[in-house]
Design brief:
- It is an enzyme of class 2 (transferase).
- The structure is a single chain.
- Helices cover 57% and strands 6% of the residues.
- With 386 residues, the chain is mainly α.
- The chain has 2 domains: 1-82, no CATH class; 92-385, P-loop containing nucleotide triphosphate hydrolases (Rossmann fold).
- The N and C termini lie far apart (50 Å).
Amino acid sequence: MSPALRKAVRNPDGAFEQALAKAEAAAGVSADIDRAFVDDYRDLMRRFAKVRDISFLGWTATVSELQMRMENRLRIKRLHAEHPEIAHQPIDRPIVVVGLPRTATTLAHKVIAAPEGNRAPMMWEFHHADRFDVDPKLREQRLKKARRVSAAVNVITPIWETIHPSTAETPEECVLALPHGLQWGTRFKLKGYREWLEQRDFVPDYQYLKEFLQVLQTGDRTRRWVLKSPFHLYNLGALLKVFPDAHILWTHRDPQTVMGSWCSLVETGTALCNRRYDTEEIGREWLSSLSWMVEQGRMSRLDIPKERMVDVSYHQLTADPHGQLPRIFERLGLQWSFKEQGNLDDVLARPGMRRNHEYSLARYGLDPDMVDAAFGDYTKLVASIR
């Protein structure tokens, strides 16, 4: 596939125009409805085309995801334009699960999203965002398509089912509704991109996330949204400007363990998307990025009322989930019942929920002293609540 790849990356604007045309057709609206966003994504496509060792799979998968994101964005904007009342849908007291990657955020997210009065976006909804009361036949068609995509991912990368277990109909990270973020770094090294992110105003991105949730909620009963992503950590200020009554649940784990596990996950994505890569570069990049995320989150939390911050020890949560989660529910104003107990048992029984294997820092050019130096006194904070 090398000739096809070389041709594509030489003309990223051509590939972008093809993806945009498909997104416009599927969304039923011209890109003129959100031209600034579209131009922004054109620049992002150009960044991907400059990745020196990008693989054919990495390129095609990323172009496909950009198309999916543009389709959703244009559809959301069209629905809001056609039905201004959607903007009045209340998004009250959302629960936002944050924390470094590999800190049991997935466990917390899935259990907290399960009660009948709560709601999390499903994976398939990130592929085909629309109103809750959309035509049932169309909904089923989209579900089937998302199931095929999910199955294909597990065929291409069987280990993914253990690293990050998900299906088309399980709750997924809402970062998929945010156009920009460090998540792109799990595939590629994008020169200058993090510096660009550090200067970006993320409030409009979170405003779009709110519009996204309002569309999903239209035609459904109002429920309490449960959101999750490690990458909210460096954007808590912007998030709270859009969702001022949000409750933040922050899971904490020893950064030395986090770094090995996270670098291993990043290597999995990088190996798929690049023909060559450097494991030590992965270590350097993510030690800098994750310690920066924690620093940003700790600064932002100073402005969050204590009653809306819930700190959770990964070690306590995973050692005693049945004892810890009822307390977490109480802090969030939720009721714990036999039904929630059953939901927890189901989540714990899924593949990947109990990980016993840890990963080597040395493979990524790191050692404990380097991690301690990067994270400063955060390591002591984690130990104090362990």
